[in-house]
Structure formats: structure tokens, C-alpha cells
Amino acid sequence: MLWWSDELKIGVDTIDEQHKGIFDKAEDILNLEADSKPFAVKKMYQFLLNYVATHFKDEEKVMEGIGYPDLEEHKKQHIYITNELGKLVDKTIKEGITEENIDALKLLVIEWLINHISESDKKIAVFINEKKSG
Ligand SMILES: [Fe+2]
Ligand SMILES: [Fe+2]
Hints:
Layout: H1 13-30, H2 38-66, H3 71-95, H4 99-132
Bound molecules: fe (ii) ion (2 copies).
């Protein structure tokens, strides 16, 4: 899903705030166009690069702390997203802000929200709840 809802909370405030943060940015990202102000596009890339660096590290710490069984597989997905974003930044630096590059960015973020946050991150919440109910 492309909007934030409490159902997506994993119950760890920092992580939930970070997740809400990327959902809040989604609309701005989807509104980017090849002729958007280069400054706005650059700012968005900077936000995303910062975001993946902090958020993935914080989330992995949480998973380590609770003994999350699928940590390694989950980390691979984080590496994938980080790498794809990095490749896109390099491509945009080389080629400029093209429609193709903007579309690729949108697709990456949509996949991230739908397949990663709404599926893989959600599984962390399921694990935490199972643990609580013993
Ligand atoms: Fe996450
Ligand atoms: Fe994650």
C-alpha cells in the first residue's frame, strides 16, 4: 500500500517514525518529473541516501536485539535497495535528470513501500507480537 497506516507499525517508535517518514515523502517523489527543479531532485536523492543509511542500520539493530530469525535475508533486501539507489544516483549524475531515471526512482520507492515495508518489515511486527504472547 502507498499510504501509511497503523497496521504497518512494528511497535518500535523510532522505526515506526522512520517508516512514516518515507511514506510522507512518497507523494513528493511520485510528483517528480524530468523537468522538476534539479535542486528538488537532488534534495530528494540526498534525503533517500541519508534515510537508507540510518534507517536500515537502526532496523537491523532492532532485529538483532530481538533475535529475529530472518535477519540475514532481510539484510540482503536492505543491501539490494541501497545498491539500486546508489546505481540510480550514479546514472543520474552521468545522464542527468531524465524521464527514465525519474521513473526508475519512482518504481524503486513504490517497490520498497509495497514489497519491503508492507511485507518484510511487517513480518518483524508479527515476530515481536508472537514473542510477546509467548
Ligand atoms: Fe524498514
Ligand atoms: Fe527492512
